[in-house]
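User: Can you predict the 3D structure for this chain?
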Amino acid sequence: MGKSLGRPIHALLGGAFRNKIKAYGTGCYYPDFFTDTPKMLQALESEAQKLKDSGLTAIKVKVGLLPVETDGQRVDLVREIFGPDFPLMIDANHAYTATTAIRMGQRLRDKQILWFEEPVTPEDRAGYRQVRAAVDIPIAGGECEFTRYGFRDLIEDCVDIVQPDLCCAGGFTEWQKISAMASTFNKLILPHVWGSGIAVTAALHAIATIPLSPHTANPIALQNEPMVEFDRTPNPIRDDLLQTEFQLANGCLSVPTGPGLGIDINENVLQRLTVRH
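Assistant: Here is the predicted structure, written as structure tokens:
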């Protein structure tokens, strides 16, 4: 519809509150040699330094594959590299039981972690409540939920930060309903984004339309202003599929202004990446 009307998607969704969106980087995954702790920590140090030099304004680190103390060392190292005030988050990809997630949260209680993402499996609502009650770190989740019905009880008392994935939760219109629900419960909404350049672009349009929540006269990233997730691992479906590359400027990505999503697909790359059965 945006293409046919000559209007960008964010205009069709009601208009943009911002034309640039601060990006936080997702990285610090586990290498193949993750069981070799000294080598793994050395590789993590190198990656974290590169992320620090890239201009991102916040970083999310993976946890959950190793024992609590070893993963704690990983976060300690990243915190040391970025300094005490740099926004730092952790993501367990529902690797823990509630008991272990609480141990991890307590291990990191002095590391100024902005949120603890998916500490337990999406189905474990009781576990979410346990972790949220016991850990002094905001709890985030929602990337595995579908439609507003999947988010209803999650938003009510399981998470502090709501993370619908636009490509999974039901598209733009369903995403708007989820966003409205989050606002009703006075929860910050920070969409999950991972995968293709199309997904990142769609998220930019959607995030541009989110008002400050809670509303104040001063936008503060990760406090009342949404950010976009910008995975930093090599990914040709994200980095090569579009005819124009994403440009990070002053820690921000620009919201496209062209018709529809405002992007064009590189057909040659699409053919190269297509798998036919």
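The domain at 2-273 is CATH 3.20.20.120 (TIM Barrel). The chain has a mean pLDDT of 94.
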